[in-house]
UniProtKB/TrEMBL annotation:
GO terms for molecular function: N6-(1,2-dicarboxyethyl)AMP AMP-lyase (fumarate-forming) activity. The gene is purB. It holds the Pfam family Lyase_1. Pathway: Purine metabolism; AMP biosynthesis via de novo pathway; AMP from IMP: step 2/2; Purine metabolism; IMP biosynthesis via de novo pathway; 5-amino-1-(5-phospho-D-ribosyl)imidazole-4-carboxamide from 5-amino-1-(5-phospho-D-ribosyl)imidazole-4-carboxylate: step 2/2. Residues 329-449 form the Adenylosuccinate lyase PurB C-terminal domain. Gene3D superfamilies: Fumarase/aspartase (C-terminal domain) (1.10.40.30), Fumarase/aspartase (Central domain) (1.20.200.10), Fumarase/aspartase (N-terminal domain) (1.10.275.10). InterPro entries: Fumarase/histidase_N (IPR024083), Fumarate_lyase_CS (IPR020557), Fumarate_lyase_fam (IPR000362), Fumarate_lyase_N (IPR022761), L-Aspartase-like (IPR008948), PurB_bact (IPR047136), PurB_C (IPR013539). Residues 67-308 form the Fumarate lyase N-terminal domain. Catalyzes two reactions in de novo purine nucleotide biosynthesis. Catalyzes the breakdown of 5-aminoimidazole- (N-succinylocarboxamide) ribotide (SAICAR or 2-[5-amino-1-(5-phospho-beta-D-ribosyl)imidazole-4-carboxamido]succinate) to 5-aminoimidazole-4-carboxamide ribotide (AICAR or 5-amino-1-(5-phospho-beta-D-ribosyl)imidazole-4-carboxamide) and fumarate, and of adenylosuccinate (ADS or N(6)-(1,2-dicarboxyethyl)-AMP) to adenosine monophosphate (AMP) and fumarate. It is an enzyme of class 4 (lyase). This is Adenylosuccinate lyase.
Length: 462
């Protein structure tokens, strides 16, 4: 095995790299380090802009050169940090040394001692994680989730009139439409999307144990809380003023729970569509050159939905672990969060891969309407609900003397198939008014869908 080339251990960095690559710019180790450099640089600029400790504001050119450290962060910086961390054994300290090294190269040694000024590592980390997660979620993951939801909404509108047999407990039940059933998922996802849109991304910047002690020691006559607040909010983040050494991660717990919730809804969607495919309700559109089975040429496997299902389970497990672990820190600080947070990208990666498969899968199926109609025509007994409900209304209105409508229909239909002719004969013999009888005789399983179509029109905006 000595000649075997080094390979990525995670399928996200191997087989599925193309699908999840956009997350790498934010949630990879390099993405985190770039954000750390950004925080260090912007803190330098913030301190000098205020003229603290006898400094003067940097010129526009100097600021531009300084910001290039993170705007043009690349392989050279990645390699430099790897070499330095091998010595420091501390990732944030390596970032500090990188910034100091580049300050010298830029002729800005005069402000070198303000690098990482009064900061604990978690001031830098909490801000960098908030930035990277915010950007990954809002620029990559949420747009893909919205794309799936939008496409699902479009399909639900297209199929809003496609009557089908419902299956409660897996058994034939009151008919619905395929569009309405898919719209239920859209409605559920929109609720969670609304919650995700309201997500907070918080950071702290208050020193070793959240007290600004070092700051006050250096300059007691400065409002350090407001300086820190302005700095964090200027980066587009929310400011957590009351913390221990670490930002308490509650915003992350909330975000990952919501992401897991969205994944659970999508998992339900994937298993339902898989089941509809197995029933023949959806036909899969052949992809040129694709193979469904190594030995059975006729097969087209529902791989998109199976892949999504599995990756949503992995993502959900990781999101749950992130949320349950990050909510706790022993006293003022422990390092369980450090290694845990390195898996944020893995969780979102599996989720993004699932979203990609769902979006592609929804474009590779078509509804087999004749199959739905045949299924409905083979289950006329589902009209028993309508008949016994109409009879009850007729009894209440004084137009019928039937004593127990439910029992009457139960005896006729429970556990057995009833055809159209048999059901029509039964209705003809009922003690109900003529108008009610006519409505029931006109009813078929395919037309017994209530307000299903109008519900889609009312609630779904593709």
């Amino acid at each position: 095995m000595s000649t075997f080339p080094v390979q990525p251990l995670s399928p996200l960095d191997g087989r599925y790299r193309a699908a999840v690559a956009p997350l790498g710019g934010f949630l990879s180790e390099a993405g985190l380090n770039r954000a750390r450099v950004e925080v260090e640089v912007e803190w330098l600029i913030a301190l000098t802009d205020r003229g603290l400790f006898g400094t003067t504001a940097l010129s526009a050119t100097e600021k531009q050169s300084l910001r290039a450290l993170y705007l043009e962060f690349g392989q050279a910086e990645i390699d430099w940090l790897a070499e330095r961390e091998a010595v420091t054994r501390h990732d944030v300290k390596a970032v500090e040394y990188l910034v100091r090294d580049r300050l010298t190269a830029l002729g800005l040694d005069r402000i070198a001692e303000l690098t990482h000024f009064a900061c604990t590592s978690e001031d830098i980390n909490s801000t960098a994680y908030a930035l990277t997660v915010q950007r990954a979620v809002t620029q990559v993951w949420l747009p893909k989730l919205r794309a799936v939801t939008t496409r699902l909404g479009e399909v639900s509108v297209e199929l809003k009139d496609a009557a089908m047999l419902a299956r409660t407990h897996g058994q034939p039940a009151t008919p619905t439409t395929m569009g309405k059933e898919l719209a239920v998922f859209v409605w559920r996802l929109e609720r969670v999307l609304g919650q995700l849109d309201g997500s907070e991304f918080l950071a702290k910047f208050s020193g070793a144990t959240g007290t600004w002690s070092a700051h006050l020691s250096a300059e007691p006559d400065v409002d350090w809380i407001e300086i820190s607040r302005a700095f964090i909010e200027g980066l587009g983040l929310g400011f957590n003023e009351l913390t221990t050494q670490i930002e308490s991660h509650d915003w992350q717990v909330e975000l990952y729970d919501r992401a897991r919730h969205a994944g659970g809804i999508l998992h339900n969607l994937a298993t339902d569509i898989w089941t509809y495919i197995s029933l023949g309700y959806f036909a899969q559109i052949p992809v040129a050159g694709a193979t469904g089975s190594s030995t059975m040429p006729h097969k087209i496997n529902p791989i998109r939905f199976e892949n999504a299902e599995a990756n949503l389970e992995i993502a959900g497990g990781l999101f749950a672990t992130l949320a349950s672990t990050l909510v706790t820190s022993r006293m003022q600080r422990d390092l369980t969060d450090s290694t845990t947070q390195r898996n944020i990208g893995v969780a979102f990666g599996h989720s993004l891969l699932a979203l990609d498969n769902l979006l592609r899968g929804l474009s590779e199926i078509s509804l087999a309407r004749p199959v739905l109609l045949d299924d409905l025509d083979g289950n006329w007994e589902v009209l028993a609900e309508a008949i016994q409900t109409v009879v009850r209304a007729e009894v209440t209105a004084g137009r019928s003397q039937i004593s127990d409508p439910y029992a009457l229909l139960k005896e006729l239909t429970r556990g057995r198939r009833v055809g159209a002719a048999e059901l029509a004969e039964f209705v003809q013999g009922l003690d109900i008014g003529d108008a009610a009888k006519e409505r029931l005789l006109a009813l078929t399983p395919a037309t017994y869908v209530g307000l299903a179509e109008s519900l889609v029109d009312r609630l779904i905006r593709p």
